[in-house]
Amino acid sequence: MKKSIFIYYLIGIINMMVAQQKFGIVVHGGAGNILPEHFTKELEQQYHQALSQALNAGYAILEKGGSAVDAVTAAIKILEDNPLFNAGKGSVYNQNGQIEMDASIMEGKEMKAGAVAGVRRIKNPIEAAKLVMEQTPHVLLIGQGAEKLWTSKGFELVDTSYFYDEKQFQKWKENQINKKNQKHGTVGAVALDKQGHLAAGTSTGGMMNKMPGRVGDSPIIGAGTYACDKTSAISCTGHGEFFIRFAVAHNIHSKMLYQNKTLQQATHEVLFDELLPVGGNGGVIGIDKNGNIVMDFNTTGMYRGFKLSDGSNGTFIFSK
User: Fold this and answer.
1) How many other CB atoms are there within 10 angstroms of residue 101's CB atom?
2) What average pLDDT does this structure show over 15-42?
3) Contact between 228 and 222 (Cβ < 8 Å)
4) 267 has catalytic annotation
């Protein structure tokens, strides 16, 4: 009898702990020279709606007890399918007028990760990154190798015409005249689930007019994406070369783990004390093991939003 009472008591404690576990999701759609005067009211509303849709897709999974990995994947797929963002359908063009996409995902429990780079015919690169993580012994596959894995698992490739977007094409044509590399955005998501596990993911079309074969920070674990249940989940956006050189996502994790910095402190230090002085522009979203979040950037704006189990939520574009 006493043993049964103890078991019921223990179950009650476990249920209480699960009920009290905070959970939530944060998303971004890129950072850069984003100013109110660049937007009509209608366009601004479209961005808010897209961010909300991504948040709701991920949060619905978390609310039902689903994993942070699945929530991150669902949220990023929404953004990849929306031509407003430089990922998937809205990816920018390289010097040859082609689209090459990168993505990565990482989970914080066992710290497994997967990534793809330079893919051209996978509709949702974040799903391919998840496939690499879950069904191969590798972390990063590129180009045709990644696409071969995709088809070997029974998934279809799409024609490259699917990714055509008139707005991005016209920007690319203008860029051919100006002959300038234009830094464009990235999409990403980070999540904390009811089991207390973290995950982060990032997806991008890269840099406008980039050299064919160029790979930025988005598919590089530790640069654009990182997750560890001991600290936080991080997704980055910005000038990828700087984020690679400064290992931004892992740098934030390290400051938290070894210097006992908060997520907010670590992120701000990296963005403003380390990156900005050398010309590294961009932003970071993160969520820590306790459900604290960060959405920080050293540019004029970042498409961003969050939705947490305490009821707080919101989407934002500009610095104020």
Assistant:
1) 30
2) 87
3) no
4) no
